């Protein structure tokens, strides 16, 4: 048989495959999410996120030092306050848990790591919504954005290099940019959770931050519907126009089409969030011996990069870096 085109020629040896590989993964691709909880002395494991913990103020500093030594360029902090209220006021309290953690991490690593802060109030509200709830039970967009601006300033004052608004309120990026600029924080960047879907894959995260949405509610009135792609492009375009420095698609592996399409339309960095449920599924299957966890992790994170993400927020960051540095 005469076959002239034989793509398999380029798969014959490991060196050949390495030479023609289109996608690479390095420690530079990762941002490690970190949870820090008020009033604990020891890290507390999160059962639905095996290997991930709620940090104390001391252990979070140790962890950022380890992350720096692993050559990972960034972390994103989430806070679990001791006290929650209807407005989520601990989110902008200068002594709030994330602000204190940012100050300490900033003292420990300075500019060696990009210190990002998730900017939302759901971890801080007693009803678990990402915004203020009005008398009719609806999330009030514009009143919420004002609270986000307060939180952005508190995070910037505490040393955040980047704030990452994740609440999916309209106009949040523009308002936060104006608030930061108005206070002299022109160098603090914004990573916008621009296309964030109302996903069933955030379950373990809500265990991690102790959030339950009141009355069995959900976030479908502000986060996106998984059926839509064009809507994501519109959301991203708005965030870019409002001044986002980087935008994010979330979750990641079930939304590779969104990542690929966004990459084609964007001239600024694109992030993807490999979320808690994606991590938990991988870990559960690997723990049962049903898949090779390490190989699957490379394949999935590699697919997210191949689709077009410039960097990935992932709970796998530290273990992947340990493997890559080996
Ligand atoms: C909201 C926020 C969420 C996540 C990141 N920021 C939860 C939500 O929207 O309900 C989820 C991250 C994950 O699942 O890993 N502050």
Number of helix segments?
11
SS-based class: alpha/beta
Question: How many domains, in number, for the residues?
Answer: 1
Topology as a string of helices (H) and strands (E): HEEEHEHEHEHEHHEHEHHEH
Bound ligands, each once: ligand PBG
The average pLDDT score comes to 97
What is the overall shape?
Answer: globular
CATH topology group: TIM Barrel
Biggest sheet architecture: 8 strands, parallel, barrel
β-sheet strand percentage:
15-25%
Do you know the CATH architecture? Alpha-Beta Barrel
Measured on Cα atoms, how large is the radius of gyration?
A: 20 Å
Strand segment tally = 10
Provide the spatial order of strands within the biggest beta sheet: 1-4-5-6-7-8-9-10
The CATH class is Alpha Beta
Your description of this structure?
It is a single chain. This protein has 326 residues and is an alpha/beta fold. The chain has one domain (24-325): Aldolase class I (TIM Barrel, Alpha-Beta Barrel). 38% of the residues lie in helices and 16% in strands. The protein has helices at 14-20, 57-69, 97-109, 141-157, 172-182, 203-208, 230-241, 256-265, 276-287, 293-307, 317-325, and strands at 30-37, 44-45, 53-55, 74-80, 114-119, 162-165, 189-196, 246-250, 270-274, 311-314. The protein has an 8-stranded parallel beta barrel with strand order 1-4-5-6-7-8-9-10, surrounded by 8 helices. Helix 3 (97-109) links the parallel strand 4 and strand 5 (114-119). The structure holds ligand PBG.
């Amino acid at each position: 048989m005469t076959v002239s085109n034989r793509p398999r020629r380029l798969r014959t040896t490991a060196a050949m495959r390495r030479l023609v590989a289109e996608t690479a993964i390095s420690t530079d691709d990762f941002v490690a999410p970190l949870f820090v909880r008020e009033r604990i002395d020891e890290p507390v494991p999160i059962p639905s996120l095996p290997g991930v913990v709620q940090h104390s103020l001391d252990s979070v500093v140790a962890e950022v030092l380890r992350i720096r030594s692993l050559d990972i360029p960034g972390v994103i902090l989430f806070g679990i306050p001791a006290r929650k209220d209807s407005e989520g006021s601990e989110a902008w309290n200068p002594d709030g848990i994330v602000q204190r953690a940012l100050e300490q991490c900033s003292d420990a690593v300075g500019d060696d790591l990009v210190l990002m802060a998730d900017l939302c109030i759901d971890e801080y509200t007693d009803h678990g919504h990402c915004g203020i709830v009005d008398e009719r039970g609806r999330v009030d967009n514009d009143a919420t954005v004002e609270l986000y601006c307060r939180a952005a300033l508190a995070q910037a004052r505490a040393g955040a290099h980047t704030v990452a608004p994740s609440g999916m309120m309209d106009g949040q990026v523009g308002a936060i940019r104006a608030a930061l600029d108005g206070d002299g924080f022109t160098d603090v960047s914004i990573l916008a959770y621009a296309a964030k879907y109302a996903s069933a894959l955030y379950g373990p995260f809500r265990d991690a931050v102790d959030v339950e949405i009141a009355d069995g509610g959900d976030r479908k009135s502000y986060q996106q519907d998984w059926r839509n792609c064009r809507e994501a492009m519109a959301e991203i375009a708005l965030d870019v126009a409002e001044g986002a420095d980087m935008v994010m698609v979330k979750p990641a592996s079930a939304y590779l089409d969104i990542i690929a399409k966004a990459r084609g339309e964007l001239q600024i960095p694109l992030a993807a969030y490999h979320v808690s449920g994606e991590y938990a599924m991988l870990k559960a299957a690997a723990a049962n011996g049903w898949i090779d966890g390490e190989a699957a992790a490379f394949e999935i994170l590699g697919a997210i990069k191949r689709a077009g993400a410039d960097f990935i927020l992932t709970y796998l960051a530290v273990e992947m870096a340990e493997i890559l540095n080996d």
